[in-house]
Give the backbone structure.
Amino acid sequence: MIDAMDIWDRLRGEGQVSGSPPEAAVAMPWSARLLSGAAAWIATPLMLAFAALALGDLLVTASGSLVVGLALCAATVFPLKRAGHEFVLQAATIVSVVGIVLVGYGLAAGLDLPETAVAACLAVLAAMLFAMSRQPVHQFMCAGILIAAVVWLLDGTSSARLSLLQPITAWMAVALWWLSLRTDPVVAWQGHLAPLAWAITLTAIGLAWFMPMNAVDAIDPRLVAGLRWFGALLLPATALMVGFASIRHDDRWLFVVLVGAAIVLAWLWRWSPGITFGLSLMLVAFARGATVLLAASVAALAYYLVVFYYHMTLPLLDKALWLGMAGVLLLALHVILRRVPETRP
Amino acid sequence: MLFWILWRNESGQRDQLSDWRRVGALDDAAWQRARVLAGRQPSAVAWRGFLDHLSLWLAIALLGAALVCFVAANWDQLGKFARLYGLQVALVGVVAAAWRLGLDRAAGQGALLLAGVLLGALLALIGQTYQTGADTWQLFALWAVLLLPWTLAAAAMPMGVLWAFVANIAVWLYTAEVASELVVTPAVQGVFNLALFAIWSALADRVDGLRGRTGPRLLAAAALATASIAALIDIFDSSTLLHAGMGAWVLAVAVIVAAAWRWHRDLLILALAALSIIVVDTCLVGRLLFEVSDAATGGFLLLALMVIGQASAASLLLRRLAAEGAPA
């Protein structure tokens, strides 16, 4: 394997670049950034409490909280658009999110708007702040508020309806991760993809809790079955996608084994959409080289195995059978991978 | 784990090229050419290693979960001897597989880990079948004791973490049962994890399987988290007279900072210790401020400034250590 410096030298030899590669900026160690960020999450609420007490009764009135909320959102746009100290970025993130909450309170209490109108206003505000921000945690939180507002608009009180969103959000999350991997880093919106993908990923993980194992009264049984298959198909689709991009040309047998195993696992776990989603996330995380996403997908998978255990509509012995079958299949896959030789083009 | 190193190197290479592209060092043509030169990433070799390990470890997890479900089902059609002997046969089979595969291979370590989980299921089944009347903590304590020889034989991170997890639950259940003060459980747990951290750190340089920073980092985080909770209980619960929480916290912070300072200057552990100090002393000063003074407005500002000052000082120190070559 050649390293990045070798590639630079080759490019220079071909006349594509000149001189030395740009020096990497002296970055703050990530442990120090972690400490600064965590300190911001402790200090900023204290500062906000001080400010709230200093403002007196202003925040109690609906119009006051609306004005202060908008002012907080506006004040943090500039620091969140440029790279800065981690403490400042995290503090601005908290202030901005508190601003959105105050705006929501002001709209609901002061203008006496219907719930859907408040949700629509919050969605628009969160989308605007998301688009303007360059800070990943802030983008993630704005995306989260945007998704929550959209779910609210789609009648978030019905868990049966919420469950319909799970396969759609799962497909969206994997598509966004894949798009962020394939998009040129100089494209303006490339930096927005990962925070949005994180927000949608966590939404899909959360929504899988509501996914019915069997038909429920509120939803047409054929629709439930269709959604189950749609969610399960994500795993073979992801295997095909990552396999086509980086395995098919260099190791044809590995590609065949991966796609075949993905199809069988998708069929086995069609009852439990969280598990197929966790496996799909694992594949896309490995393709991206994303360690944190890989760890999150392992955690999601473990969580959904626990959820599967507590699904009361399936007897425990059936669960043991499904788990055992999937375990034996994976062991067989392990043996096959050891036996099948690497194929080179 | 060669595939893991290869994967990390390939990811690092891709990130480096993206950074050069982002700062404008690579134009469109150079960017396309650089991607061709870098080849397909992750490479098929890395994928093969990943899928090889994923299939093995996921199979172990699923088979373990299947056995747990099987036991939990309390299958009435089988007699108690069939259930007990069935699980024991499975346990012996998995241990034999670990022995046959060898503990120097990931598959052997995985089999032994599964055997460790099965041991807990077997103890639970014995307790359920014979209604021994034993407390739950005794089950976990016995599990930890029986697991210890395998943990020593494996001398590897996964078994070490499993043992620490089981032992922690045993300590937690025991102290929660016998202690009358709320503070005792997190205080004892903090000291217990501190002792495990010290042992692991001491062994890390001598035992190959325990090398690396993950184990000590997990245990240091567990010790600091539980000791900090104990200190916070001491601060906010005025009925506590023992001050065991503060004592455990001071001990945990002192030992962990000293060890992290001497032991490879681990910046993450130092950052976690600094965060623990900030949380505990902010709460302590906050309680004193709001008890002796009714100037709440100024109190919040003072506390915020305290946090900012301490975080800045600690961050400066961490940056200096990083500049001297300490690992982040």
